[in-house]
Amino acid sequence: MVEEPAKRRQKVAAERLYMASQYLSRETKKDLGLMLQVPMYVQDPEVARLRENLGIRNIDLDWEPGLADGPTSARVAVVDYNADTGLVAQPARWDEAGRRFLEADDPASFQFHQVNVWAVVQNTLSFFEDPHVMGRPIPWGFDGSRLIVVPHAGNLRNAYYDRSSKSLQLYYFGAAERPVYTCLSHDIISHETGHAVLDGIRPSYNTISSSQTAAFHEFLADLTAILSALRNNDVRGVVAEASGGDLYSDDTIADLAEQFARDEVVAVYGEAQRYYLRTAKNNLTMKEIQGEWEPHECSQVLTGAMFKILSEINKLQLADEPKPSPAEALWRATSHLNRMALRALDYCPPVDIQFIDYARAVLRADELAYPRDSKGYRTIIAQEFTRRGLEELATPAAPSRMDFLWKFTIDQIARSRTAAYSFLHDNRKAMHIPPQHDLTVTDLYYTDKLVEAEKCLPQEIVLEYVWEEDVKLEGPRFGGFQGQSIPLSCGGTLVFDGRGNVLHWSKKPGIEGAEGADKQEGEQRRELMLRYVEALIQAGMLGMAAGEGAAELALGTAAVVARPAQGRLRLEATPHLMHVGMGKGGHDA
Amino acid sequence: MPDELLVRLYRVGCGDCIFLRVPDEGGPRHILIDCGNFLGDPVGDLRSAVSNVVELLNDPEIPAAQRGQLDLLVATHQHWDHLKGFEGALEALKGFAIRRIWITIAMKEDHAGAQGLHALQAGIAETVKGLVEERGRAISPLLYAMLVLSLSTGEASRALRQVLSEHNHIEPLYVYRGVEGDLAKKKRASQLLSFGDTSTRLSILAPEKEIDEAYTAPATGLLGELEVHTAGFLEALPEDQRLREPANISASAFRLLRSQLMHTSLLAASQENSVVNNTSVALLLEWRGRRLLFPGDAEHESWKLMWQNARQALSRPLDFLKVSHHGSQNGTPYELGDAGNPINEILDTVLPRGNAGNARAVVSTLAGRIHAPIHPVPFPELMNELAERVSNALAYPSGSGRQPQRTDLEQADWIDVRFAPA
């Protein structure tokens, strides 16, 4: 079929615009037709029930070539398969000419559900990739580039990110005539997408090392739910208006998964005014979670701290001169928080993250974006972390550029993992890397970040490296796992500027070949890991993995599985550890 | 031979293998309750345990006429962690004479009151087989152990029903609460175990004879509920919108996805596991003022029925409790953190907190074998709660607070509990 000349010209123009789109602002892209209008729930359906203007809204998403039925985009494919019925529901059809998904107008239709879940995942991913946030394409944590999203996976009160099947699985539950679809909950979808994003950024956090590493995944997933919801103008407007400047006086954003929690809360406590699975409005401290292994519980310390920091920054913004509107102040506060809270991920170690590592990374991210700190935000941040029991906030000293041997230039290193390895090997002494351990360069990338008014930050080069040491599980406290060996993951993240200066160094030393303070830290990490593994075994959270091609989600798979690899057991979190969270949730009568 | 009752709980992994020596007029009587362990546990541990039983039965102090004889062998229920040794340690079990074999009535193939259970087991086996074969789903080792192997304990069952019975020229007795009365009518009382000392008595508190009526409802109910949900879902999905395969991912990616998704019918399968636990034979041994309870793997449903139907037997504190179901949360009649729950009355009666000095309990278990999300075994908080009610609680070096003695944490091949007459 020959295309009409007008249509062809239109197509060529669209492709040219698309190629220029990275230089265009959101508004310009909208004017030029490079954005789609897609309907989705901007908050939880329970919130929509209470607040009419936070129901289904058309949101703007980037147009891209190759959009297709499903919806299917470059990074996300919706597959509406139901495990209980064995059927696939007809996908929403893509109309390229009208630039919209068809059959998605009826909120009760499965096609709307498909479009809704796609839009939330797509929106969350683009939020992370935005130059104002991470400023780089985010990989997924599995082999392949497209995340499969299953909106009606079956009848179950849960939702999962499952690396092994490259999918997000959203289940439904409740009365057969009025089921609760988790694929309609912005909080739940963005929470699970947060897991998927973090798994792409730091895949080794899936390896079990301590309760805080598992909890960090939950924290980041909840933070993603909160910050990605705040990206929406309507949501921000309502929150700014309703809170009157004090974010603690409104629950819209702080409360998570309201509808999901509702039935359970009603069953336990009766009808209430407010329901939530977790809330960011908490004052939990490190002391209070001592001995707690449940990751959703532990995660609340950091979620609470970041919400408090957002609230304090919002107050400072409101006091600014000339006085901004509440919505404008909240926009500035959330933008600032995005820049430090999420960018901090680039400054986190590649393995075994502890809350204190994150706290340091947040401060460093803020310092690099705003060296002057004219409003004193860093004092607020440091005070809040300290109040929560995260006290040693100074980042340990990094080696200087002059301490290194440079066989390759920093540009050459940034372009090749092998060159990066060679650099690390040449500088083992300066980097405290024991000579006998083989190293893996687990990630290497440039960042292109912006601050306010589209100003560029200097480009950064991030280099992550990892090695593993053996630790034996000795004694009856390890139950059926006694006598097995597990790895102690060690390594570091090095952040350079374009001249090879070290901007940040976050390291996790081992024991073998380590000296002094490193050895001490390595031994502490080993003890912490052993205690955690023991707690998992004694709490009945650790089981053997199924064999090749096995279902991680099969009932009977433990929250943490031990997988035989290279003569030892690798302990990995399964979706049962990183689900949206069970439990009764909370309420206000 | 000392005038004391001996309970020996072998360390066999996650499973039960319990030997009893009960002093009686004319010499001691000997009982072996179960002989099994979990999928990953070595069968060699069971053989070693049975070898030790052989030694105990041939103790030169036992009167010659009774030496080398086991008075009673009990198979509490059809799970691998209670039966495996009947297949794996069969040769060793042939090393002594067995006078009686008791098996739970739930395992009697032609028992009319268990046909629902047998149909449920067959249906679930079929579902699991279907998921494995048609959808390429691999089953987790735990589920595999719980389902496939518990449903196919055929060899162990055959060893019990046929090999050991024929070897000893006896008929196995399928037992339930009330079997004693029914047998007396049929003049087969010799299949029961009676004692010369009239103060000694072995009573069967569970299971109920009508297995289906008593225990299978939760699992069949769950399957029914799932059917309703599936029907509701299909109603919301018009027929012309139902496809077999998606067009936007490859066939191999779809195969992987299908194999990985949670299948709700497996939830029903895990319920079947509880049903079988509830069909456990529960035995109360009363000996010269001492009261010892061996409930197999009884879960809450079975405890509630025992409380209802055999209240008299449970109305006073025990001297010994073999903690049910390897210390799982659902094996002890107590709801942690729910002070007002009526089921707590059972534990508060049989192991009252105020009576800790007089009672003992042992958990035959191995941490790390059965885990969340099914139910962690043993359950740490339950261990701490039981520790408050017994005199043999310890704080093991591994932490987790005080617990009753546990076979996995003791540095010995067995735990002995001895009782003098009260």
Describe this structure in words.
The complex is a heterodimer of chains A (589) and B (422). Chain A is an alpha+beta fold and 589 residues long. Chain A folds into 2 domains: 368 residues, no CATH class; 139 residues. Chain A contains 16 helices and 25 strands. In chain A, the strands form 10 sheets. In chain A, strands 3-8-10-9 form a 4-stranded mixed beta sheet, with helices on one face. The relative contact order of chain A is 0.10. Chain B is an alpha/beta fold and 422 residues long. Chain B has 2 domains: 319 residues, Ribonuclease Z/Hydroxyacylglutathione hydrolase-like (Metallo-beta-lactamase, Chain A); 94 residues, no CATH class. Helices cover 38% and strands 17% of the residues of chain B. Chain B contains 14 helices and 18 strands. Chain B has a 7-stranded mixed beta sheet with strand order 8-7-5-3-2-1-18. In chain B, strands 9-11-12-13-14-17 form a 6-stranded mixed beta sheet, with helices on one face. A two-stranded parallel ribbon of chain B has the order 4-6. In chain B, strand 11 and strand 12 form a beta hairpin. The longest helix of chain B is centred in the middle third of the chain and has 26 residues. The chains are: A alpha+beta (589), B alpha/beta (422). Strand 5 of chain A pairs antiparallel with strand 10 of chain B, so a sheet runs across the interface.
Features:
heterodimer; A: 589 residues; 4-stranded mixed sheet; 4-stranded antiparallel sheet; 16 helices; 37% helix; globular; B: 422 residues; alpha/beta; Metallo-beta-lactamase, Chain A; 7-stranded mixed sheet; 38% helix
